[in-house]
Amino acid sequence: VPVFPTEGAMMDNRFATALVIACVLSLISTIYMAASIGTDFWYEYHTLSPAENVSEAGRSIWEEFVSKDADEKTYTDALFRCNGTVGLWRRCITVPKNSHWYSPPETDMTTNCISFSLSDQFVEKYIEPGNHNSGTDLNRTYLWRLQFLLPFVSIGLMCFGALIGLCACACRSLYPAIATGVLHFLAGLCTLGLVGCYVAGIELLHRKLPLPEDVRGEFGWSFCLACVSAPLQFMAAALFIWAARTNRKEFTLLKAYRVA
After folding, report:
1. What is the pLDDT of residue 69?
2. What are the UniProt keywords, alphabetically (predicted)?
3. Cα–Cα dist 137/208, whole Å
4. Nearest CA among 79, 74, 87, 210 for reference residue 132
């Protein structure tokens, strides 16, 4: 929402336009961040023949995948075999709808997902995934925790910035928009940190568990939404700060001119 300066000064059209654009960018980036957090396509695995992979041996793998006791290696192997997708909160695999041993092979597939519990988000990662005796991998452990916390910090900062903007609007002052811009800048840093942590975590995981030859991995559209959100936050921050500082400077010069 555009805010207005005090002392009876009229806001220049360019400042009003900058604030409107900043508000639109802020809204779009918030929507993108919320969508990326709530969807499961941060990273996708594409298997050449997923239906064949879910054989008598593979069937037990996806059954362990949905188990609460599944460790990192177990569910990662299932993601490799069954066209898996991974989000910040859930992991999913694609399996035949009818998977009984007496049923003929079928191509009618369905997606099964299971959520990461809150304890899963803070669980330790091991140097050898699945081997609890190999010691804690501190790099992957803290990258995993940061990629869970940073998006919520980012959204929280933007919401707090919006609250400051509404208060500034009620007070008819443009100067608090600087605080809104700073908060959006910090939110952009958090989003950028989230993207970096996720990429680093995936790369470190694949060094421990290399992709099979017939499996291709790529970042999904949920990840792309987060990547787009960061520059939108930075642009909104720059417009908020520019409009507030420039308008304040011009008002000060105008006031000094009138006094003179």
Report:
1. 73
2. Membrane, Transmembrane, Transmembrane helix
3. 11
4. 74
Question: Where do we find the tokens 């593979």?
Answer: 58
The backbone torsions φ and ψ at residue 171, rounded to the nearest 5 degrees and listed phi first, read -85, 0
| Cβ atoms of residues 29 and 208 within 8 Å | no
pLDDT, position 33: 94
Kindly state the tokens that stand for 41: 């396509």
Q: Poorest-confidence range of 47-61, 67-81, 142-156, 237-251?
A: 47-61
The DSSP code sequence of the chain is -----STTPPPPHHHHHHHHHHHHHHHHHHHHHHHHHH-S-SEEEEES-HHHHSSHHHHHHHHHHTSTT--HHHHHHHHHHTT-EE-SSEEEEEEES---TTSPP---EEEEEEEPPHHHHTPPPBSSTT-TTS-B-HHHHHHHHHHHHHHHHHHHHHHHHHHHHHHHHHTT-STTHHHHHHHHHHHHHHHHHHHHHHHHHHHHHHHHSPPPTTEEEEE-HHHHHHHHHHHHHHHHHHHHHHHHHHHHHHHHHHHHHHH-
Model pLDDT for residues 45-66, shown as the tens digit of each residue: 998 765 555 555 556 766 777 7
Domains and CATH numbers, the chain: 12-116+137-250 (1.20.140.150)
Q: How many CB atoms sit inside 10 A of residue 235's CB?
A: 17
Of 39 and 104, the structure prediction assigns the larger pLDDT to: 39
Contact (Cβ atoms closer than 8 angstroms) between residue 71 and residue 57: no
| Model pLDDT for residues 16-38, shown as the tens digit of each residue | 788 889 999 999 999 999 999 99
